[in-house]
Amino acid sequence: MAKDTLSITDNRTGKSYELPVEHGTIRALDLRQIKTGPDDFGLMTYDPGLTNTASCKSTVTMVDGDNGILRYRGYPIEQLAERGTFLETAYLLVHGELPTQSELEEWQYNIVHHTFIHENVKKFMDGFRYDAHPMGVFVSTIAALSTFYREAKQIHDAECRKHQIHRLIAKAPTLAAFAYRHMSGMPYAYPDNDLSYTGNFLSMMFKTTEAKYEPNPALERALDVLFILHADHEQNCSTNAMRAVGSSAVDPYSAMAAAAAALYGPLHGGANEMVLTMLREIGSVKNIPAHIERVKNKEVRLMGFGHRVYKNYDPRAQIVKEVAETVFEVTGRNPLIDIALELERIALEDEYFLSHKLYPNVDFYSGIIYEAMKIPIPMYPVLFAIGRTPGWLAQWQESLEDPDLRIVRPRQIYLGEGERQYVPIDQR
Ligand code: CMC
To answer: Ligand 1: which of 233, 238, 277, 307 to mutate, most ligand atoms within 8 Å of CB?
Structure first.
């Protein structure tokens, strides 16, 4: 009869063990009993990059990479992108359910009324070099917020946590836009609470002398959809950083700064920046075959392609491609889209990409939209961070409520020297 267990025979000792299987996993600690003798520490697993290790149980986001499916709290990403708003999606991620009308109004009120930042934040933002990368500024200023909200350390107080979640979702666009204004030498534009979440962000980015900035509705909607698409993606590198750092019981500002730092890397949220650089370098459709050859020779990676989880088309990339067309109706066509489309077409017919299951990911087309909207390249990872903020917070909150939570502290395989005696410097 079938049983939910796994039988293991240790050929080193001839002993057999039966381990429970739950949710398609065994508990790593159950392996510890498998020893060659009393002095043996016990069996561990070796999993660099945690490619086959479930680090938590979660109810937030489901990714089915083989079938190209992404759902937040059970809702398909396509439906949320078509019919929802970013703030509604943020509520869904944080609370687990879509809001009723009154819940949404209260949520929006709470976010809108936390968009301002303390004036002192502006002062240390001024201290960054004139050309500081806005993602570095974002990471640092998110961390710095912990010094303004010292009560945020009370992470086990649900009300207090809620307050910090409102603040972080509300202030992320303000810090992002201020980082951009600093980079471009423009005066900071304060939040306009009459505008939508995304409209206000565009206002803080682009407002100049006009008394009131009026965002273009098509661009406002496009950016809102991009934020929805980036809002969560289960245990990715930055979310894992949020959970790992948060497991030390630090405040959410410090944990989110760590998450944003993880996002900065070119293999993660920095990829959209790299895609644009790559497309510009390719420069023309005629240069694509040569670039594909370089990728296949492993000289460079095709940025915006491939994913740890998706071994099929990333469903977000499909939506971003459609959003691009709505943006181009307003901004005019970004010529890079033609290079991207042709690159995708050639790659998806090529044996290397097919056999490696490499498809466009969310970042392949998003940068082309941002560029058409006149958002400078260094801002791309920052936009990703604004979108990902509710996901990080939902996952952080879930981790704190998890009875299985322990400080994240992996093991290692030590392959270094045995004990050695200190040698004075003149005898080395
Ligand atoms: N171009 C060319 N080859 C690739 C690529 C790529 N973009 N991605 C993976 N490969 C190859 C890689 O060379 C390796 O080949 P082989 O088995 O012959 O040695 C194989 O595919 C597996 O690669 P891997 O690095 O072990 O795969 P991974 O799951 O560790 O990496 C990834 C996932 C996203 C880091 C990687 O696909 C990549 O570097 N992509 C480009 C950067 C990018 O677009 N990142 C954004 C990810 S989506 C947004 C986000 O969540 O941040």
So the answer is: 307
Cα dihedral 129, 134, 138, 141, rounded to 10, equals 20
Residue 72 phi/psi, 5° resolution?
Answer: -100, 120
Q: Which residues of the chain have pLDDT under 50?
A: none
381 close to ligand 1 (CB < 6 Angstrom): no
At position 83, the amino acid (one-letter code) is: R
CATH fold of 271-372: Cytochrome p450-Terp; domain 2 (1.10.230)
Residue 306 gets the label, from left (phi > 0), alpha (psi -120 to 50) or beta, of left
b (16+ CB within 10 A) / e for 128-145:
beeebbbbbbbbbbbbbb
State whether the beta carbon of 271 lies less than 6 angstroms from ligand 1: yes
Looking up tokens 């894992």, which residue turns up?
240
- Pairwise CA distance, residues 121 & 102, whole Å: 33
87-123 pLDDT tens trace: 999 999 999 999 999 999 999 999 999 999 999 999 9
- Here the tokens at position 417 are 């020297």
Residues 209-256 pLDDT 10s = 999 999 999 999 999 999 999 999 999 999 999 999 999 999 999 999
> What pLDDT was estimated at residue 60?
98
Our answer on whether the CB atom of 239 is closer than 6 Å to any ligand 1 atom is no
Ligand 1 pocket check for 267: Cβ under 6 Å: yes
Spot the catalytic one: 268, 338, 350, 402.
Answer: 268
Say if 65-266+379-397 and 271-372 have the same CATH topology: no
Provide CATH code, domain 65-266+379-397.
Answer: 1.10.580.10
- Atom 13 (ligand 1) nearest CA: 298
Contact partners, residue 235, CB within 8 Å, separation at least 6: 50, 55, 56, 58, 243
350 is catalytic: no
Sequence ranges of the domains in the chain: 1-45, 65-266+379-397, 271-372
